Automatic annotation (TrEMBL):
This is 3-hydroxyacyl-CoA dehydrogenase. It comes from Maritalea myrionectae. Keywords: Fatty acid metabolism, Isomerase, Lipid degradation, Lipid metabolism, Lyase, Multifunctional enzyme, NAD, Oxidoreductase, Peroxisome. It is found in: Peroxisome. CDD domains: crotonase-like (cd06558). Residues 289-464 form the 3-hydroxyacyl-CoA dehydrogenase NAD binding domain. InterPro entries: 3-OHacyl-CoA_DH_NAD-bd, 3HC_DH_C, 6-PGluconate_DH-like_C_sf, ClpP/crotonase-like_dom_sf, Enoyl-CoA_hydra/iso, NAD(P)-bd_dom_sf.
Length: 677
């Protein structure tokens, strides 16, 4: 008998327990165990078979580590077909997260019972795949085409109540799955038509064309949502015996696709990112109360995120009026959560009572951690930490949210440097997933581990960064923008560059994005960097000239584009195109044509190059850290796997060539990473 699938037959009822920790994934041994169980149970002449999961969940999916390898027998669709076709009715008694292969198994059973709160879904789409064992073919037959498309093209989860409402369950129970299965088997209803033999309710003639248009728009270049739609269309138009093999073939083909490889890379990276070498042996310190200093744009968002994660928060502002304004900002975020149905009235009461606001630093005394988010000004930040240090315990953790300043300078003169850390949030801080956890040379492992722990509780992706100008994310951003400006000078327009990067999969191009967020911050940065910029480096001053002309972006109705009142659509502006050609002429540049591909190649090359330098210098430990920073902080398309993965996918030689072109075009302006030279 199999180790991972145990069969126990008593009183003609078979109990089939899947025990393959941690999530009972359908690896080869589980598949073989289930197939053997079908035969054994039939032979024994049982009346019913109950399949359930040991531990905290029913089957939560396939074994992703097998996806990179040739599939091993027996194949999952054959196993599930044997269950569906068995003369003995199978009852799935599920709990936990019943996802992918687990949901497919439940659909192949004659009956489905779920513990209250069980979550169901087909997450294959998020790995660039379609289900591989009949999920896309059985689900529309079980709950209808509309609901099946909704689940399969988004990967979203629904709970047992919702699935019951859609007609997908025969019962919901509380308590033990096996007990519930036994109770059901004791009074077994007549066996319904197999799910695979059911008819799909017809849809209108242009239904799928419309869905296609809708989903294509939403997918922004990712192909798996459309693949899932196509598979469901097979279910709606073909018999199961034809649709199922087509689904299986597509699943196998997609396993080798670049998009699925990229998405799987990100999946594994997200698990590895919280375990950098630098925190090995570190133990997180318990944090209950967090003091946030500065209740502006970032501070309010950080405070709100901390409240939602269950911390007590003390907000400190520079005077009573500013404190009131900060409190109002946080109250506004809570209100917004209520309006969108994300926060219940009861929860809102809790959040409000966990917040206190003050303009007196004495209020910080009880905090375990302080996060500073005041003006980006060294002297102001230094003064803040002096005041905090005067009131807080001398082992309380001190964190700065600075974007560009060197944390070592910020903490100068404060005692116990092992407790210093950077916690760099992204705007809006309660929404953006990325948290750069910045290590100073003095930061202790325990304090770093606490940063990662906090990130997890805030449901963020924490990425370790060392100190450099802009840390990982903004440093790559400024290389990217610098190269985009070189392209402007050499022959492109903002429109062309924006379009090329959108088509590549970025949510926005670099110029429309600057207009949206405002040109001032980057301007201030360039001024700050001027002192250390090598004299021989090529410098494009178009952005500075726009700022001098008070063109700060959408808020001033003009920036790289112009905007009509109340309209965010960027319109080309002759002022900008003339300025570009004038500046090029002044610099003696002969403008030429670039294809969209040239633009992508060059912009990606500098991103990859900067990422490689960052890893080379030890600012990031691994390429995957760089990938996750760009994906979770800057909208880099997940299905491209991040810049470093993308570079590997297109091949290092191509990147080298593009970087050589970039360097030749703008001599003395790029330091090329070791692996690209
Ligand atoms: P902001 O100007 O909206 O807020 C700053 C707040 O700090 C103001 O409410 C101000 O009253 C308060 N403040 C100033 N001096 C203070 C003092 N001595 N004690 C207490 N409160 C004081 O600025 P924002 O955008 O929230 O930025 C704050 C920090 O976060 C800066 O270091 C910035 O570089 C960093 N940051 C900003 C991001 C952004 O997208 N805006 C992203 C990531 C980091």
């Amino acid at each position: 008998m199999s180790d991972v699938v145990r069969v126990d037959i008593q009183d003609q009822v078979a109990r089939v327990e899947i025990n393959n920790p941690p999530v009972n994934a359908t690896g080869q041994a589980v598949r073989q165990g289930l197939l053997d169980a079908v035969a054994q149970i039939e032979q024994a002449g049982a009346n019913a078979a109950i399949v359930y999961g040991a531990g905290r969940t029913f089957v939560a999916g396939g074994d992703i580590s097998e996806f990179g390898k040739p599939p091993q027998l027996p194949h999952l669709p054959d196993v599930y077909q044997a269950i569906e076709d068995s003369s003995v009715p199978w009852i799935a008694a599920v709990h936990g997260t019943t996802l992918g292969g687990g949901f497919e198994l439940a659909m192949a059973c004659a009956f489905r019972l779920a513990q209250k709160g069980t979550r169901f879904g087909l997450p294959e789409v998020n790995l660039g795949l379609v289900p591989g064992a009949g999920g896309s073919q059985r689900l529309p037959r079980l709950i209808g085409v509309d609901a099946a498309i909704d689940l399969a093209t988004t990967g979203k989860m629904i709970d047992a109540d919702e699935l019951q409402e859609l007609g997908g369950l025969d019962g919901i129970f509380e308590g033990d799955p096996l007990e519930a299965g036994l109770a059901f088997a004791a009074d077994l209803p007549a066996r319904p038509t197999k799910v695979s033999a059911r008819d799909v309710a017809p849809v209108g003639s242009d239904y799928f064309a419309q869905k296609h248009a809708e989903i294509k728009k939403r997918a922004k270049g990712q192909s798996s949502p459309l693949d899932n739609l196509k598979a469901i269309e097979w279910a709606a138009t073909l018999p199961f015996t034809e649709g199922q093999p087509k689904e299986r073939q597509l699943h196998l083909d997609l396993r080798d696709s670049t998009q699925s490889q990229a998405l799987r890379h990100v999946f594994f990276a997200e698990r590895a990112v919280s375990k950098p070498k630098a925190i090995e042996g570190g133990t997180p310190i318990e944090i209950n109360t967090i003091c946030v200093v500065g209740g502006g744009l970032m501070g309010a968002g950080i405070a709100f995120a901390c409240l939602q994660a269950g911390y007590r928060v003390i907000l400190i502002e520079r005077d009573d009026d500013a404190a009131k304004a900060g409190q109002d900002r946080i109250a506004g975020l809570i209100e917004g959560g209520i309006k969108r149905g994300k926060i219940s009235d009861e929860k809102a009461v809790k959040l409000r009572s966990a917040l206190s606001v003050s303009s007196d630093y004495a209020a910080s005394a009880s905090a375990d951690l302080a996060i500073e988010a005041v003006f980006e000004d060294l002297a102001v930040k230094q003064a803040v930490f002096q005041s905090l240090a005067a009131h807080m315990r001398n082992d309380a953790i001190l964190a700065t949210n600075t974007s560009y300043l060197d944390p070592t300078d910020i903490f100068q003169g404060i005692q116990n440097p092992a407790r210093f850390i950077g916690l760099h949030f992204f705007s809006p801080a309660h929404i953006m997933k990325l948290l750069e956890i910045v290590k100073l040379p003095t930061t202790s492992k325990d304090v770093l581990a606490t940063g990662f722990d906090l990130g997890k509780r805030l449901r963020k992706v924490g990425v370790l960064s060392g100190i450099c100008d802009g840390f990982i994310g903004n440093r790559i951003l400024s290389a990217y923008r610098r190269q985009a400006d070189y392209l402007l000078m050499d022959g492109c327009t903002p429109r062309q560059i924006d379009r090329a990067m959108r088509d590549f999969g970025m949510p926005m191009g670099p110029y429309e994005l600057q207009d949206l967020t405002g040109l001032q911050i980057a301007w201030a940065n360039r001024k700050r960097q001027a002192a250390t910029r090598p004299a021989e480096e090529r410098y494009v001053r178009i952005g500075d000239l726009l700022c001098e002309a008070e063109r700060f972006g959408q808020r001033s109705q003009k920036g790289w584009y112009q905007y009509e009142e109340g309209d965010r659509t960027p319109q080309d502006d002759p002022f900008v195109t003339d300025l570009i050609t004038e500046e090029a002429a002044r610099a003696g540049v002969t403008r030429r044509d670039f294809t969209d591909q040239d633009i992508v190649d060059r912009l990606m090359a500098v991103m990859i190059n900067e990422g490689a330098l960052i890893v080379e210098e030890g600012v990031a430990e691994r390429d995957l850290d760089v990938d996750l920073v760009k994906i979770h902080g800057y909208g880099f398309p997940r299905w491209r796997g991040g810049p470093m993965h993308y570079g590997e996918q297109i091949g290092i030689d191509k990147v080298k060539q593009a970087m050589a072109d970039v360097a030749a075009q703008s001599p003395n302006s790029w330091r090329v990473a070791g692996r690209l030279s």
